[in-house]
Amino acid sequence: MVTNILDKYGFPDSCKNVFSVIVNDGPLSSKEIVSKVPCSTRSVRYALKRLLEDEYIEKRPCLRDMRQSLYSANIDKLIGELQVLRGVR
Questions:
Q1: CB burial class (10 A; 0-12, 13-18, 19+) of residue 25?
Q2: C or N: which end of the chain has fewer Cβ atoms within 10 Å?
Q3: Kind and range of the H or E element at 57?
């Protein structure tokens, strides 16, 4: 169901893979995401950038290691998109 949201707007497979991993396993660092998806590091960086721009994910500092960021799903946006797909107002 999660990838249906991104299919609707023509996102590439790398974005779908990254978004799926973040929704299921997040919050995650970019290194953790790279290890979980069948994409190159460059593709993951592009996917993160695109998902951040469209506000499907959120970025926050990792409190254990301030050099890293953690990515998590934007639940409000996700709920809104699911309601649109189902036709709920």
A1: exposed
A2: C
A3: strand 57-61
φ, ψ for residue 76 (rounded to 5)?
-60, -45
Where along the chain do its domains lie? 2-86
pLDDT in tens, 32-72: 999 999 999 999 999 999 999 999 999 999 998 888 999 99
Q: Residues 30, 51: contact at Cβ < 8 Å?
A: no
Q: 12: which 2 tokens?
A: 């590439």
Helices 13-25 and 41-53: angle between axes, nearest 10 degrees: 80
Assign domain 2-86 to its CATH architecture.
Answer: Orthogonal Bundle (1.10)
SS3 of residue 59 by DSSP? strand
The amino acid sitting at 25 is D
Decide: residue 51, CB within 10 A, 0-12 exposed, 13-18 middle, 19+ buried: buried
